[in-house]
Amino acid sequence: MKLRHVVESQQFTVPRLMELFSRTEEMKKIVARGGTRDYENKIMASLFYKPSTRTRFSFESAMFRLGGKNLATEQAYEFSSEIRGERLEDTIRIIADYCDVIVLRHHEEGGAKRAASISPVPIINAGDGAGGQHPTQALLDLYTIYNECHALDGLSVAFIGALDKGRTVRSLAYLLSKFERVKLYFISPDELQIKTDILEHLDENGVSYNLANSTDGIINKVDVVYQTRIDRERLKDRNLDLTNYNIDSSVLQKMKYNSIIMHPLPRSVEIDTDVDHDRRAAYFRQSRNGLYVRMALLTMLFEENDEPTLFDGYKK
Length: 316
Ligand code: CP
Known about the structure:
Blueprint: H1 14-32, E1 43-48, H2 54-65, E2 69-73, H3 76-79, H4 88-96, E3 101-106, H5 111-118, E4 123-128, H6 135-149, E5 156-160, H7 167-176, E6 183-187, H8 196-204, E7 208-212, E8 224-227, H9 249-254, E9 260-262, H10 283-304
Parallel strand pairs: 1-2, 1-3, 3-4, 5-6, 5-8, 6-7, 8-9
This protein binds phosphoric acid mono(formamide)ester.
């Protein structure tokens, strides 16, 4: 099926993921050669209602490396016409007339889906709301795991942090559920634990998982540690000792020699900078992969949506 919009990670089938990863390898070669002009007639609009470093810069860099152009507004909440009360749907309709793809980070969960329901050009969800999804992060995360662990079936992955509103964790859990014999661990204080919609999805797909409050007995046996931040102000007990959720050199000693540590970034104290020098620290390689995966995704969208589509009214 044609890839029209990228709204949620579960829309990707395993063959589609493999196609994306194969293209990602091509993109690495293109970047090494200094880029291409193949997409010089394409324009991307990056519309970010919330702050971003990695997603916005990597998408914009991806577009430039493909030879295309970029229209951008950061802090669209302030600098677009939303400040004057314009509806998201109207903003999308206007911007779609000026570009070939829109990369949208919206402050409301479901914002990307609303935009996609009326947009005549592809919408890429660059993160929606606090507990929505971040599918392109999950794609680059999955590519990183595939590239570093040389497998996806049979892997064990520990997610650590504030998992209830972790849209990167949510999107990656959906993707991992597509593979065989995957085992997932969700490690978090109770009040920030992964939400039931994800657990129900895992149950429906026969994925094995475990919920825990501590890394003890888990960190030593997993292939991937996926670390995220915990915002202390969201805890019932703001004085809760969080050191058990952090990764430092003492935790490294317990981990398997061939495991990897990932983080969508930005990080705070949850990964000690001493860990950066260990070869298992994959988070900077992971963010670099964002450029290649996003280039690959843009090329798929451009090729599969080459026919101009005019906006023909709001769907009822
Ligand atoms: N990982 C991620 O989405 O980072 P940014 O918020 O900097 O885009």
